[in-house]
Backbone:
């Protein structure tokens, strides 16, 4: 049983996001953040998505997620708590550490004893509440996931992004929606199957099933006749295939290693117990537009661009992650510069020169370049409208973009507000769209869809 500690963080800043149209239950005083936090936690623990949805800041992805969870729970009443709403919404990444207790020994084979190992997971999660314009408080789900995950990726946050981009169709209209617009349904199925395979391994000496019978082996761990069918291709008998290289292989103890092992893929082989090789995966045509869906031995699942291997995707994600960290470090350096210069940010003409000695990082020799362009002099530009301004004159730092990733350029480059740039990274939750990053004045670094065609670069 997991022992889960929840730290409630209450942000005392007003939110501009609209409230849900429905009213919270009368018993919940939304003017008291502690009451709201406890009610939300109780709704998660009780697997009550309808009650939880009344207590959160309105968000398209979050709304779609709660609707999906409500539909799943209606189909599978009494589902095991381990796969309930509380774990989905609060589990941090990477996988939390565990304590192991050794139980009583029992006689085994000749001259042997068998001991049970009892694992207790401790997951420290954070819940962020945002004050609304009317003085009430609501849970900010995305901020909560970010605060919980820290510098690590959040699987659920990625899923929310996908669901916001590809909203759930109204009941009865799913068949009319193109398959590529519903990839998150396939990803959700893959996560369930990956969890079933992990559960099988845990009960079979930590080994995955024989590839030739993998579907038969995990049938007791899944529910419903359509468990092996991709929702985008309902006429198939079995949409998913198992990685033949993992047949009867043990699961690694390290979560990160598991998250690099491709376990399942949506291939459309349409035969029971289908298998694939990594070479097959690279040649697979897009099942969901320009990308496919795969699952990992960690239980994670995501979209994979057509023609890319998982190793290539990992390299792309690593590069994007380093780029984000470098841009965040630039914001920290810019604020440190302002502290020593009468509260003023560095001027556009010399911002690289001014920040070079202040950038604290361990991400390579040049903090001004994206890893995808290591030979470039600089890959980022400062917002001309903010450069040289005093911080106290600037309002709403979380919305003001201080730096943008513009591609290879010269030092001390600047851009004008509203200017956009070509995408440079494939981001995990939207691999069909090339992105570039913007760093906000509060330190947040967010991906932005890039322009389809190159235009004039930033001004120097």
Residues:
């Amino acid at each position: 049983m997991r022992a889960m500690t929840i730290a409630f963080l209450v942000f005392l800043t007003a939110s501009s996001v609209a409230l849900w149209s429905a009213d919270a239950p009368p018993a919940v005083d939304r003017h008291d953040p502690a009451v709201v936090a406890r009610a939300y936690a109780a709704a998660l623990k009780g697997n009550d998505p309808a009650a939880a949805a009344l207590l959160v800041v309105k968000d398209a992805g979050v709304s779609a997620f709660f609707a999906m969870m409500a539909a799943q729970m209606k189909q599978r009443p009494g589902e095991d708590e381990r796969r309930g709403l509380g774990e989905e919404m609060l589990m941090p990444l990477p996988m939390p550490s565990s304590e192991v207790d050794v139980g009583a020994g029992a006689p085994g084979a000749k001259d042997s004893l068998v001991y049970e190992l009892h694992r207790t997971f401790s997951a420290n999660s954070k819940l962020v509440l945002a004050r609304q314009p009317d003085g009430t408080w609501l849970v900010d789900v995305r901020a909560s996931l970010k605060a919980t995950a820290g510098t690590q990726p959040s699987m659920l946050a990625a899923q929310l992004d996908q669901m916001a981009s590809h909203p759930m169709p109204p009941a009865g209209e799913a068949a009319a929606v193109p398959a590529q617009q519903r990839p998150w349904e396939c990803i959700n199925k893959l996560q369930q199957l990956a969890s079933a395979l992990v559960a099988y391994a845990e009960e079979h000496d930590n080994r995955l099933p024989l590839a030739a019978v993998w579907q038969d082996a995990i049938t007791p761990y899944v529910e419903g006749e359509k468990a092996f069918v991709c929702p985008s291709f309902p006429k198939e008998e079995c949409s998913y295939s198992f990685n033949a290289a993992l047949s009867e292989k043990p699961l690694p103890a390290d979560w990160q290693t598991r998250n690099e092992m491709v376990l399942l893929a949506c291939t459309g082989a349409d035969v029971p117990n289908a298998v694939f090789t990594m070479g097959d995966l690279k040649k697979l045509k897009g099942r969901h537009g320009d990308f496919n869906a795969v699952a990992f031995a960690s239980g994670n699942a995501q979209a994979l661009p057509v023609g890319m291997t998982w190793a290539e995707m990992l390299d792309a994600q690593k590069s994007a992650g380093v780029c984000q960290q470098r841009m965040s470090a630039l914001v920290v350096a810019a604020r440190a510069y302002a502290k020593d210069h009468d509260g003023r940010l560095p001027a556009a003409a010399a911002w690289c020169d001014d920040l070079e000695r202040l950038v604290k990082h361990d991400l390579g020799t040049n903090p001004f370049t994206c890893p995808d362009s290591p030979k470039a002099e600089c890959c980022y530009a400062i917002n001309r409208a903010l450069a040289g301004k005093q911080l106290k004159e600037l309002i709403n730092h979380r919305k003001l973009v201080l730096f943008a990733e513009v591609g290879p350029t010269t030092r001390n480059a600047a851009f004008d507000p509203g200017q956009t740039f070509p995408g440079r990274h494939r981001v995990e939750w939207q691999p069909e769209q090339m992105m570039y990053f913007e760093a906000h004045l509060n330190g947040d670094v967010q991906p932005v869809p890039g322009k389809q065609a190159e235009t004039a670069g930033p001004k120097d």
About this structure: The mean pLDDT is 78. The chain is about 30% helix and 20% strand. The first strand starts at residue 3 and ends at 14.
